[in-house]
Amino acid sequence: MSLTSLQQERAFAALNSFSIELPSWGFANTGTRFGKFIQAGAATTTPEKIADAGQVHRFTGCCPTVAMHVLWDFPSGLGDVPAVLAAATQSGVRIGAINPNVFQDQQYKHGSLGNPDAAVRAMALQHILDCVEIQKETGSRDLSLWFADGTSFPGSGSVRSRKRWFQQGLARVHEALPEKARMLVEYKPFEPAFYATDIADWGMAYLMAKSSGEKARVLVDTGHHYQAQNIEQIVAWLLDEDMLGGFHFNDRRYADDDLTLGSIDPYQVFRIFHEICFWEWENQRRADIAYMVDQSHNLKNKIEEMIQTAMTAQELYLKAALVDHEALAAAQADSEIVDAEECLRAAFFTDVRPVLREWRQALGLAPEPLKAFRACGYLEQAALERGPKNLGAVSSYA
Ligand code: PSV
Ligand code: MN
To answer: Contact at 8 Å (CB) between 50 and 84?
Structure first.
């Protein structure tokens, strides 16, 4: 089915408005708990991660910002900011969300802001406040907060005390935020060997955000849900409450698998985007949402995989933008459930790739980002330059 000129106009407007942030941690060699498969050309430094993200933006035109993980990207704290900013400028991207890290140090064995030891809670709070300073210096709008806190066995800790310690800590963080900044509270129901994570679901994250202050919102990581959970319903509720701050996008088959967005269930991603586009149509304004990728690949080439992810996000967002909202609203009002569902199906099964190619060409981009990237020689050069560092301890590689 080819698009009408009105649909074409809507498609271009949707694509012009859509961008998705890349995670710096998706470009370095990482693995599972059981092992790493090293890629010769993977980034070995923060400027290299930013340069790789810049390649994704160069070929897709929709990834202008890069999220940073503070301990991994600013190991010396504020002192690293000028070099990071210079690398971003050089790579044609900007610094996006700042992610504190209060899960790696030995002191956090029993938690960070939820630790029963006040000294450890203070240490975690100080790290997050230091991250707010980095947020100010980098001009980043969002502070993304994820906590690996929780308890491992029934009775291990006071559930209610931990909740209150979190509320106290997060309120302190909120006080320190610069004027136009936000803090996003991420939830996750599980970690291996956990009995309970402290911020386990969207309701808990909502409560934490609400009690922190008006600049706090909920961050929905699509991988952080139980099997079969209806994520788009959560999205619709959070939108209606003006509490949806952003997404960490990835796909999963079982749990937090970090699979490529839409590789397992593209219809779910479409349904999430649909709830947002439908809300925007009803409210006649854009929802203030930070779309971010949170994936780190061990097998696929990292830059190629991020290009694939960005393209998939554009395709699914575009399909959602093409839903006939007037017809849908009318069908819903009359409880015409087949007609209502057909509105979604018609949009989902529209092949949007031709209009995407036209949009890219109108912007001076290559119509096929993946092909163009493969032909540009960046990967070969990266493998040559970074290979010795990446392969130091490894005897052979693909
Ligand atoms: C945790 O699983 C998470 O989703 C958080 O967003 C972290 O910041 C990120 O992954 C990277 O470890
Ligand atoms: Mn995440």
So the answer is: yes
Ligand found nearest the CA of 146: 1
Which contacts of 366-374 are long-range, i.e. CB under 8 A and separated by 24 or more positions? 366/59, 369/59, 369/60, 369/307, 369/310, 369/311, 370/59, 370/304, 370/307, 370/308, 370/311, 372/59, 373/55, 373/59, 373/303, 373/304, 373/307, 374/304
Residue 396's pLDDT is what?
Answer: 45
Mean pLDDT value across residues 10-30: 97
pLDDT tens for residues 272-317? Answer: 999 999 999 999 999 999 999 999 988 999 999 999 999 999 999 9
Ligand nearest to the CA of 99: 1
Q: Which CATH class is domain 19-318?
A: alpha beta
Ion ligand 2: residues, CB < 5 A? 221, 248, 294
Substitution site in 98, 145, 221 for ligand 1 pocket (most atoms within 8 Å of beta carbon): 221
149 lines ligand 1 (CB under 6 A): no
Kindly list the domain boundaries of the chain, sorted by start residue. Answer: 19-318
